[in-house]
Please model this.
Amino acid sequence: MGVRGSPPDAEVVALVLAGNTEAFGIVIRRYEAGLLRFATRMLGSRDAAADAVAESFVRAYRHLASCREPTRLRTWLYRIVTNRCKSHLVRRSVADVPLDDAPPVADPSDNEAALERADQVQLVERALAGLSPDKREAFVLKHVEGLSYEEMAAVTGERIPTLKMRVHRAREALLKVLEDHA
Amino acid sequence: MIVIDPRIHQVLDGELGSDAVPAELRLTVARLAAAAQLLAVPLPGPLPSVETRVMAEIRRPAPSRARRLMRWFVTPRAIIFRVRPAWSLAFAVVAAALTLFTVGDQGPELAEHEGIAQFVGRFPEAQSVHVVGTFNDWRPGSIALEDQDHDGVWRATVVLPAGTYEYMFVVDGERWVPDHLAERLVADDFGRENSIVIVRPARR
Model:
């Protein structure tokens, strides 16, 4: 991936592997926001997400030479972050997902529309937190990060039919929560 | 659990155009898409940028292999066992069978009316010790005691029908000695003292 005016991923990877450590900053700035959002949705905590993403970037840097397809750096990074998130989730029960630590929603005093939106966000976040880690991962990769099923398969190592089934189940659970609160 | 019409999934997965489904299904599609969109917006508030800490970490020289190995050894790790219930059940059955087999092998088989009599005597200089009594018609040589650890204490464990028996020890095949640690001693018809052992039926 290359943003206008910035070198494509493969070029950045080549620079880093050639010894230009500072070039790794380009990778971080390019993917940090998306990875943090993904990890936050997975872990329900900004702090835990920041830890997972930081650990993942360090890991990615140290093993950059093993990234066989630098053009697919984004998928490779998601894979590392996904595994870090799973490790974090193993260390604590899903029931402990600290929703209080979730991203702050709009101040309800702003206006009625913002309040309604904040409620909706909270509702969807709770529905997400109630999913099993596998389904949550599939749903977030598909609908939040916008990955294709092929990319999701590369990230998770799962088969496409399995991922589809997880996304479908997650949608059903989400729809049930939405209808219960309608 | 709600089951969603497969066409809704197809639309959301980009396999079917939204125009190809009825209006009521399009509503559900829109509802789910809107809910997902709520999560897809950039996170509000200041983002905890990780760039500074990551760059600081990777600028440091990598730790030596020995140091990494040491860190690996001292870092607490979770060990997760994933066991299929079928295997757990099979394991439990095998463990139970082994336990029963082992327990059953530990002692002699006892009938309801039988009990265990233990004979113990201290004869440091003896070469052999036997026990004779009313349970074996005073026949020497049929029940031998053993001194397995050569400390001079001879022992035998015998299964007998429940009852009260008189007995004596026969040391080195010729010396008849009463057991002074017996529950009781009684005088026999030959002016000697016989020991008494009471065998109680084992609880089954």
Remarks:
- The beta strands of chain B are 114-122, 129-133, 153-161, 163-171, 175-177, 184-187, 193-199.
- The domain at 114-199 of chain B is CATH 2.60.40.10 (Immunoglobulin-like).
- The mean pLDDT of chain B is 82.
- Residues 124 and 150 of chain B are 8 Å apart (CA to CA).
